Amino acid sequence: MTAAGPVGLLIGGDRVTATSENLHEHIYPATGAPNATVALAGGDEIDQAVDAARQAQRAWMALTVDRRRDALIDLADVVHEHLDELAALNVQDYAVPISYAGTARMLEWFLRHFAGYVDKPHGFSSPVNGSFDLNLIEREPYGVVGVIAPWNGSLAVAASCVAPALAAGNAVVFKPSELAPLAALRFGELCLTAGLPPGLVNIVPAGPVGGAALVRHPGIGKIHFTGGGVTARKVLRAAAENLIPVVTELGGKSANIIFADADLDQAATLSAHQGPLMQSGQSCACASRILVQDAIYDEFVERFLAIVSTARVGDPTDPSVRLGPVISSASLERILTIVDRAVDEGGDLLTGGHRIAEGPLAEGFYVAPTVLGNVDNQSALAQDETFGPVVSLMRFTDVDEAVRIANDTQYGLNAFVHTRDLTRAHTVSRRLEAGSVWVNQFSQVSPQGPYGGFKQSGFGRTGGLEGFQEFTRVKNIRIGIS
Ligand code: NAD
């Protein structure tokens, strides 16, 4: 895909290109070639977007609850009609294989789910000491919320944040990464197609400049940030100056514990698709540390490697392809340096560890799926986010050792447990320091399940009642009854 001119921002229902001189050449990672030029928001565009959002939010809240609920259901229907188009744009954004581009469907689910919140009670009344007053505890929208997304999840963040934010009565200024703006911009257009007030959802692709302007803007009531810890600290510092609350959804280094009684074929399959093959390891949800009980270590590794090393690598638009490129040449170099260092430190390179530099993939940023055995949990490979198709294998002997290794990380996003023993599944899950624990399955983010991190993986939740309430603030109204 090659765009004819710069891809514009979406502000107040209009495509805006003229006011921004800040253009970004978007590179398609599968070919290393440009596929679009994108206009980026700076301070002026953020001002315009927040103004448009403020006006639209008033129009939104002037609608009755049934009309707002129906509008979100209409939007879910429109998204449903454009699932294939959104998935294709997701591929163009960061070359995620189409076989993994399921976040458009996730967007539809979240919209349908949170439409159901619009007309449900958002508060309660409570008696008060010493009087017969009417004491109301209500939840109301912040007004305009800023949503900042990482390049690997613009539609997932639209699902988990824009849907509940609108359902709670807010307008949104949504900032996708400059590295992946295309699907988000199309989603913004679909909001208009569905009949939402222009300006209710503004899409402002930007880098650090536009992001910082959004967080510092006095018209923003709350920021929802998804990304890395380094950026999160900058966002939190800026938000402190602005005195506004922030939710942070950050990285992970999730442990995947395979007990000897597990269904080994299932565990090997899930570990491959939740590990190096999952968006080329470029997902916060990846299970990048696989802990295998001694008794089955060799057998598991054999089955796991058979799946990983035969996975189809190639053109992300081909539905049979399981592994695409990584986001950039800089990322590719960084990943290979981490792997080289891990090998120098004694890790056994079982497969991969190199760029795929021959044939039709040579110009893209392809890293072969990479597995290292006997990795030390204190090594950089085991402790830091690699964000590439790389996993570490480690051994453990008993439950206590598995839990100790799993928790021995700064992160706490996901954990995975494979066992047929329900009691063990439950007791181990409770001991794991992670916001979500998945037993005998993939991570399956759903609108009904609150998702988010412990420790350095962030705070706050998306999804479920908790995810809805993140976009509301509490008001107490007391009416004197004499
Ligand atoms: P990043 O931290 O580099 O950027 C995240 C977003 O912040 C981007 O939109 C970026 O443009 C913006 N940004 C950069 N500087 C800013 C500033 N000063 N002020 C405001 N915004 C600014 O992260 P990334 O490389 O885009 O994404 C990868 C990271 O995101 C990984 O750490 C991954 O684990 C994490 N992630 C977490 C989740 C989750 O749900 N927990 C989901 C997806 C990705």
From TrEMBL:
Keywords: Oxidoreductase
Signal peptide annotation: none
One GO MF term attached to the UniProt entry: oxidoreductase activity, acting on the aldehyde or oxo group of donors, NAD or NADP as acceptor
Record has Oxidoreductase as a keyword: yes
Domain annotation Aldehyde dehydrogenase: ranges: 19-477
A Pfam family it matches: Aldedh
Family, as annotated: Belongs to the aldehyde dehydrogenase family.
Protein name: Acyl-CoA reductase
Source species: Mycolicibacterium fluoranthenivorans
Top-level taxonomy: Bacteria, Bacillati, Actinomycetota, Actinomycetes, Mycobacteriales
